[in-house]
Specification:
Elements (H helix, E strand, L loop, with lengths): L3 H19 L10 E2 L9 E4 L4 H6 L2 H16 L2 E4 L2 E4 L5 E4 L6 E9 L4 E6 L2 E7 L6 H5 L33 E8 L2 E6 L2 E8 L16 E4 L5 E10 L2 H10 L6 E2 L9 E2 L5 E4 L2 E4 L4 E10 L2 E8 L5 E8 L5 H4 L2 E6 L3 H5 L30 E8 L2 E6 L2 E7 L20 E8 L4 E9 L1
Antiparallel strand pairs: 1-13, 2-5, 3-4, 4-13, 5-12, 6-9, 6-13, 7-8, 7-12, 9-10, 10-11, 14-26, 15-18, 16-17, 17-26, 18-25, 19-22, 19-26, 20-21, 20-25, 22-23, 23-24
């Protein structure tokens, strides 16, 4: 029999070894939740490169059938070793059962030479993970030498397509990602180095529309073993999301509303009021109020809050009198995304929020809940207009190319090159605040 002290030494050594292994399993930072519990695949299903909008459009029985097939395949290739989620390089993707909107994601991964993987955000490919030392000619042409972390499926030359710096660690070491996503705006840090800076993640399935407002996180498999651990996510609320959006590219913007009175504004000001630092159209009142100053090309940023069924508009290059939608360059519609449900009235797609009223339709489905503030940025350059709502590009149009008009009614002011900026109220207490403008 071994001496007691010897047995105690062995037990202490074993305990120390176990502690060393378990030390990698960190607790979620404050505000974060663990997507992988470090024990099993609870909270995960199988997934694939599949448009999440089409997935949600399946019937409940069709989704259950598809989930069963994908998950059976996924579980054949994914295992848990210690606190690590391990994939053998094959099979369907580990996909969260839950969907997420705006979030901050932390995770660590370790892979092998010549491997290729990625992270799908809201079901959209992808944050690239690969071997930057891969000498294969076709991979070098694909930019493998630039390293991991880029939004690989963005269009060639688009922001975020390639990482800003090479940040991969040598094989055998763990790499860590921090991914911040607000709307489709995506910022990525790999090993504490910024590799993607507030770039739009393009919709791989249909580049004409934004990515979904919500969707799953997917860990892609692509031919080589990859290990994951410490997968933590924090959901971001609307107020924080607006601050993140406002913090990027803010240089050069000047406030055109002081939050106290209507200094610098003209029009039927008696039909509007100032409440809690915001301009609000009075109930059952309306008309177009506008800045005294005129602008040609400009960017404008502001926050908008809707009552149920709320209707208003942004007057763009407005001449100071007449209807903003006809005599101005355009009226950019400001409308509750659930207007039809709230009022029972059906609208033309060119009347949806963000649309160049009666001329060009905007994408729908990106509003925050009623009672929350929405962040919007509008770019007006020549005849081109872009509207970004809560980080989603919902309109990108050239009014000079518009030939079809709602009700076949042309807009004589659409070719205006200069005018005022304002609000075109329509009886509803829609509110606006933090109104900043940047001439271009």
């Amino acid at each position: 029999m071994q001496p007691a002290f010897f047995r105690r030494s062995l037990l202490c050594a074993a305990a120390l070894a176990t502690a060393t292994v378990l030390s990698h399993a960190a607790s979620p930072p404050p505000g974060f939740s663990a997507l992988f519990n470090g024990k099993d695949l609870t909270g995960w299903r199988g997934g694939d490169t599949f448009d999440h909008r089409k997935y949600l459009a399946l019937s409940e029985s069709q989704r259950a059938e598809q989930d069963a097939k994908w998950t059976a395949d996924m579980r054949a290739h994914w295992t848990v070793e210690g606190d690590e989620l391990v994939n053998d390089g094959h099979g369907k993707y580990a996909t969260t059962v839950a969907d997420y909107g705006d979030f901050e994601l932390l995770l660590e991964y370790k892979t092998v030479p010549l491997a290729d993987s990625g992270i799908y955000l809201r079901g959209v490919p992808q944050v690239q993970i690969w071997d930057h030392t891969n000498p294969r000619e076709f991979e070098v042409k694909n930019g493998v030498q630039k390293g991991s972390g880029g939004l690989w499926n963005n269009s060639p030359g688009a922001p975020g397509k390639d990482p800003l710096v090479l940040a991969d660690k040598p094989f055998g070491e763990w790499n860590k990602f921090r991914i911040l996503m607000v709307g489709s705006r995506t910022s990525i840090w790999l090993n504490d180095k910024l590799v993607v800076d507030h770039a739009i993640l393009e919709n791989y399935y249909d580049r004409k529309i934004p990515i979904p407002a919500k969707g799953p996180i997917e860990l892609q498999t692509h031919g080589g073993e990859i290990r994951w651990r410490n997968i933590f996510l924090r959901e971001i609320g609307g107020e924080e999301a607006n601050k993140i959006l406002a913090s990027k590219g803010e240089s050069g913007f000047v406030s055109v509303f002081n939050g106290r009175d209507f200094a610098g504004w003209e029009g039927p000001l008696e039909d509007y009021e100032i409440q809690d630092g915001a301009i609000r159209c009075k109930p059952k009142r309306g008309g177009t109020i506008f800045t005294k100053a005129e602008f040609g090309d400009f960017l404008v940023r502001l926050e908008i809050k809707f009552p149920p069924g709320g209707n208003n508009g942004l007057a763009i290059r407005y001449p100071g009198q007449g209807g903003a939608a006809s005599v101005g360059m355009c009226e950019l519609q400001v409308l509750d995304d659930h207007y039809e449900k709230a009022t029972g009235e059906k609208i033309d797609p060119r009347q949806a929020h963000g649309s160049a009223y009666a001329m060009a339709p905007a994408a729908r489905g990106f509003h925050r809940p009623i009672g929350e503030w929405n962040f919007q940025e509008v770019s007006v350059q020549g005849s081109k207009i872009k509207v970004e709502l809560n980080g989603f590009l919902i309109l990108d149009t050239d009014l000079s190319k518009i030939t079809s008009f709602m009700n076949n009614s042309e807009h004589p002011g659409k070719d205006r090159t200069k005018g005022h900026f304002g609000f075109a109220g329509h009886n509803d207490p829609v509110a606006f605040r933090h109104i900043r403008l940047k001439p271009l």
